[in-house]
Design brief:
This protein has eleven helices and twelve strands. A ten-stranded mixed beta sheet has the order 2-1-3-12-11-4-5-10-8-9, with helices on both faces. A two-stranded antiparallel sheet has the order 6-7. By secondary structure, the chain is α/β, with parallel strands linked by helices. The protein is globular, with a radius of gyration of 19 Å. The protein has two domains: 190 residues, Isopropylmalate Dehydrogenase; 130 residues, Isopropylmalate Dehydrogenase. Strand 6 and strand 7 form a beta hairpin. It binds adenosine-5'-triphosphate. Adenosine-5'-triphosphate binds next to loops.
């Protein structure tokens, strides 16, 4: 079976880390006959310059008609690309693993956290206004969407260490009170999973103080956005953390990080982007019952771990001075040993 993958290369470090990731995928495609077919689409800052809008309808149609999308980080127009894509395609679950990788300087060893973040409502719903005198953003929480994300978190926890931490600020916000109530209702349907809850400020503190206590963190949209950057710092770098935006029928895979405009374009760490590709292969594999996609995902994981463990090639964010391209060549060398 063939899979059409729409590809948004992104801005800043995006094109380089995407080029590195596509090379890795193409090598696996060639050696393992994965049937991946890449279709590049314009979106982001460059699309805005070229067409006057960051997500032209022609791009949206190509994305919508693909099996899934691999997306690089976008610059200034990030919010006008990923937020509408999440809403229009109803990609309700944002899945963000934060895992300690080999030989990476991090606050703790053996961190393995999965942030399950609601992706279509909360403070990013877009109900807002701003004048010179006042501004507001409405935070929307609904029973239906909270129940859906909570079920997702419990389903994932059942395959992991069976612990869910519900994060909210129910002592202050009415919207969080509904989020908490619904999450706890769902928790009662899953008595085999341990549930606890934390206020978001305490969760931010605990993530630094003792991240080993967490398995799955179940959280609303903006709180999840913030906690996942923090979790990335706990495991060593934003350049290491991938994310999946998942809906019933479609999914977009991207790094947690942004376009990193403060660093030279050719020095971005491509690990997060490559691990997003790994998540994509796993999602496609599960959806279409294709074992070879899981195997390819595992090869990406093992090859990245080997390169990090050897410490020969490292990008500056993890203490080296290698370029994206050099890191990618090293990963491809490892892949060649596994295929
Ligand atoms: P956004 O709001 O668009 O998600 P952000 O505010 O999280 O973006 P980033 O662009 O992700 O900001 O950058 C945060 C910091 O992490 C910057 O110092 C950046 O250089 C660094 N960084 C992010 N991604 C990488 C990467 N892949 N490789 C190296 N450094 C990175």
């Amino acid at each position: 079976m063939g899979f059409k993958i729409s590809v948004i290369e992104g801005d800043g470090i995006g094109p380089e880390i995407m080029k590195a990731t596509i090379k890795v995928l193409e090598l696996l495609n060639e050696k393992q006959g994965l049937g991946l077919e890449f279709k590049h689409v314009d979106a982001g800052d460059k699309a805005k310059e070229k067409y006057g809008e960051p997500l032209p309808n022609t791009s949206f149609e190509v994305i919508r008609n693909s099996h899934c999308c691999l997306k690089g980080p976008i610059g200034e127009t990030a919010g006008s690309v990923i937020v509408p894509l999440r809403m229009k395609l109803d990609l309700y679950a944002n899945i963000r693993p934060a895992v300690t990788l080999p030989s990476i300087a991090s606050l703790f060893k053996d961190v393995d956290i999965l942030i399950v973040r609601e992706n279509t409502e909360g403070l990013y719903k877009g109900i807002e206004d701003k004048t010179d005198e006042y501004a507001f953003s409405v935070r929307v929480i609904t029973r239906k969407k909270t129940e859906r994300i909570a079920e997702e978190a419990y389903w994932r926890a059942a395959k992991r260490k069976r612990k869910v931490t519900v994060v909210h600020k129910a002592n202050v916000l009415a919207s969080c009170r509904l989020f908490r109530e619904v999450c706890l209702e769902v928790s009662r349907r899953h008595p085999e999973i341990q549930t606890n809850e934390l206020y978001v400020d305490n969760a931010a503190y605990q993530l630094i103080k003792n991240p080993l206590q967490f398995d799955v963190i179940l959280v609303s949209n903006m709180f999840g956005d913030i906690l996942s950057d923090e979790a990335a710092a706990v495991v060593g770098s934003l350049g290491l953390c991938p994310a999946a935006n998942i809906g019933e029928r479609f999914a977009i895979f991207e790094p947690v990080h942004g376009s990193a405009p403060d660093i030279p374009k050719e020095y971005g760490n491509p690990t997060a982007m490559m691990l997003a590709a790994k998540m994509m292969l796993e999602w496609l594999g599960e959806k279409h019952g294709e074992k070879k996609l899981f195997k390819a995902a595992q090869i990406i994981w093992k090859s990245i771990c080997d390169v990090l463990r050897e410490k020969k090639v490292r990008t500056p964010d993890i203490g080296g001075n290698s370029r994206t391209e050099e890191f990618a060549s090293e990963v491809m060398g490892k892949i060649s040993l596994y295929v």
